[in-house]
Design brief:
- The complex is a heterodimer of chains A (about 500) and B (about 55).
- Chain A is mainly alpha-helical and about 500 residues long.
- Chain A has helices spanning about 10-15, 40-50, 55-65, 70-100, 105, 110-150, 160-175, 180-210, 210-215, 225-245, 245-255, 260-270, 275-290, 295-300, 305-335, 335-340, 345-360, 365-370, 370-395, 400-405, 420-440, 450-455, 455-475, 485.
- The longest helix of chain A has about 45 residues, at about 110-150.
- With about 55 residues, chain B is an all-alpha fold.
- Chain B is about 70% helix and about 0% strand.
- Chain B is built from 2 helices and no strands.
- Chain B has helices at about 5-20, 35-55.
- The longest helix of chain B is centred in the last third of the chain and has 22 residues, at about 35-55.
- The chains are: A mainly alpha (about 500), B mainly alpha (about 55).
């Protein structure tokens, strides 16, 4: 009977099945139970590898080659990605893994119900809608290059054939996503190990084509300012990439069996296996004149090995689409209001992919928007990571009241002020402003101090510090935000009202 | 409220009751040790320093 406590696996098996996918944890923002966490360490690392490695990695690596040479570029890629990935994984993955909660839902504890909704709708929904447009384009251009290499076709990068191939890629991804995390797991388990091998193969092939001494001597393609500025721009690109994961990895981590598998699986996928892909893009841009390996793979590796590798690279984009669509649509169910909350999983994922399908008809526009998308996403995500880290680890000591997070009443601990936490909002604005002062994300014009401190790290620090101080000095003092739950050891639920359905 | 809303609320209530059971066991609730996080951060800092000295 509803509301009666049940025990262990019996409880999971006896969950009501009247509404397909509307009451299953993995398709909604319901908190997951232990038995529903289906990704062990290898599974999770596979999913994160499939997410992290896509053609965008080669493009970002190629963009790094504009500002720095090979050695400095490798250092910049490693530093930028390592520092941002560690911070974003601690901020987004660990809380979601611990409580099995959907990330936008859990984020109510930081921004309030309405604040979390706006943040995820704008910062996550729009940004990842954009990145899925890019992924579709990368898949279609990669498969077009395969066809050109082995069948002698002459498919241009902006042709109608590229559009059709992009639509095909979205269809494949959608067919995987509608089946949920189990199919995502198996799809990535098959593709991810191949991706890791192909990435190493790319590096070997590049070094086979050009000796390391020649690559190391190659200058940056379009150096800007002095050497230190170029180096910091390379690091900034890496950090923008790492911080950009914030909006999507939490909803994947909630399926991990332990926090340890979530943390290390993320670092393996998003850093250890992804960095070689960035480096491959960097080196191929410097050595071969093109960051996109699909353009030179077959002539270099031969028809059989080259085509196999190309197909893996092409499908790397599809694995990324499956994970990002899954996690974004979960958040959309919460942030999109009653309409999306009641919508079937098949419908909501299909609707979300409509946007990228339309964008597939404008490939040149999508390609030219990549740099802006990357730069502008860092403006919001670096401060958000700072705020999230400070809130969960310092202010709440890693304790959340799960029942209270689903409590929409005005008296809920996480209600703040009518569903808004002004401390977090002000901190976000301050962090974003800090970023702009240091670096213009459109033009890359920068302040003098940028080359010493970057833009993302000061934005991260300013936002986190502002959130901490404003919470301590104002929010906590007036008893808002449920921070006393953490100080009570996290054992006494503060909320006693009946939680309501997601809206 | 629709039947979907009711079904969702019922399921949410069931899950929250389960999660609050004293004997509810979920390995994911075991926090990463602070010491482990610090060690990883220190190791990361060392890697960044070494790669910086090599590359720049």
């Amino acid at each position: 009977m509803a509301g009666e406590p049940m025990q262990g696996d019996d409880a999971t098996r006896q969950a009501p099945r009247k509404h397909e996918h509307e009451v299953e944890g993995e398709f909604t923002n319901l908190p997951l139970l232990a038995g529903e966490r289906i990704w062990g360490s290898f599974d999770f690392a596979s999913v994160m590898t499939g997410l992290g490695i896509a053609t965008w990695a080669f493009i970002v690596g190629g963009a790094t080659a504009l500002y720095v040479d090979a050695k400095a570029g490798i250092a910049a890629i490693v530093i930028g990605n390592l520092v941002s990935c560690v911070l974003v994984v601690l901020a987004a993955c660990i809380p979601c893994a611990k409580y099995g909660m959907e990330q936008a839902t859990m984020f109510r504890s930081v921004f309030g119900v309405n604040g979390a909704r706006v943040v995820f709708l704008v910062a996550v929904g729009l940004v990842w809608l954009g990145w899925n447009c890019v992924l579709g384009l990368m898949f279609s251009r990669s498969t077009a290059n395969v066809s050109n290499a082995i069948a002698g076709t002459d498919i241009g990068p902006n042709s109608l054939t590229v559009t059709v191939l992009g639509l095909l890629g979205f269809l494949v991804a959608w067919l995987v996503v509608v089946k949920g995390p189990v199919s995502i797991k198996w799809f990535n388990k098959i593709v991810a190990p191949g991706l890791a091998v192909v990435t190493v193969l790319l590096l070997v092939l590049i070094l086979y084509q050009r000796p390391w001494s020649e690559i190391a001597a190659a200058e940056a393609l379009a150096p800007i300012g002095d050497e230190l500025t170029g180096y910091m721009l390379g690091i900034e690109l890496g950090m923008a990439t790492g911080f950009g994961w914030w909006g999507v990895i939490g909803n994947l981590a909630r399926l991990a069996k332990t926090q340890r598998s979530a943390f290390y699986g993320s670092m393996v996928g998003l850093f250890l296996f992804a960095v070689p892909a960035y480096v491959a893009g960097l080196l191929s841009a410097l050595a071969l004149g093109n960051a996109d390996p699909t353009a030179w793979m077959v002539p270099v590796a031969g028809p059989v090995l080259g085509v196999l590798a190309l197909l893996f690279v092409a499908f790397a984009n599809v694995t990324s689409i499956t994970s990002t669509v899954y996690t974004t649509c979960l958040a959309l169910r919460l942030t999109g209001g009653r309409v999306f909350h009641r919508m079937g999983w098949t419908t909501i994922t299909g609707l979300f992919l409509l946007g990228p399908c339309v964008a597939a008809f404008f490939p040149a526009f999508v390609f030219n928007s990549i740099a802006s998308l990357l730069a502008w996403s860092a403006v919001a995500f670096a401060p958000l990571v700072g705020i999230h880290l400070v809130d969960f680890y310092l202010l709440r000591r890693r304790q959340l009241d799960v029942r209270a997070i689903y409590d929409y009443s005005p008296g809920s601990p996480y209600a703040f002020w009518h569903g808004w936490n002004p401390a977090a909002i002000i901190a976000l604005l301050l962090g974003g402003a800090t970023y702009f002062v240091l670096l213009n994300p459109s033009t890359f014009e920068h302040a003098g101090t940028f080359k010493f401190v970057s833009a993302s790290m000061p934005a991260f620090v300013v936002a986190g510090t502002a959130h901490y101080l404003l919470t301590k000095l104002f929010v906590q003092r007036v008893g808002r935000g449920g921070y006393e739950f953490a100080h009570a050891g996290g054992t006494e639920p503060v909320s006693h009202t009946t939680p309501g359905s997601g809206r | 409220m629709t039947s979907v809303d009711n079904a969702f609320d019922d399921e949410l209530s069931r899950r929250l009751d389960l999660l609050e059971q004293p004997d509810y066991d979920d390995p994911a609730r075991i926090d990463l040790a602070g010491r482990e996080i610090v060690i990883f951060l220190v190791a990361s800092a060392v890697v960044m320093l070494l790669v910086h000295l090599w590359g720049y």
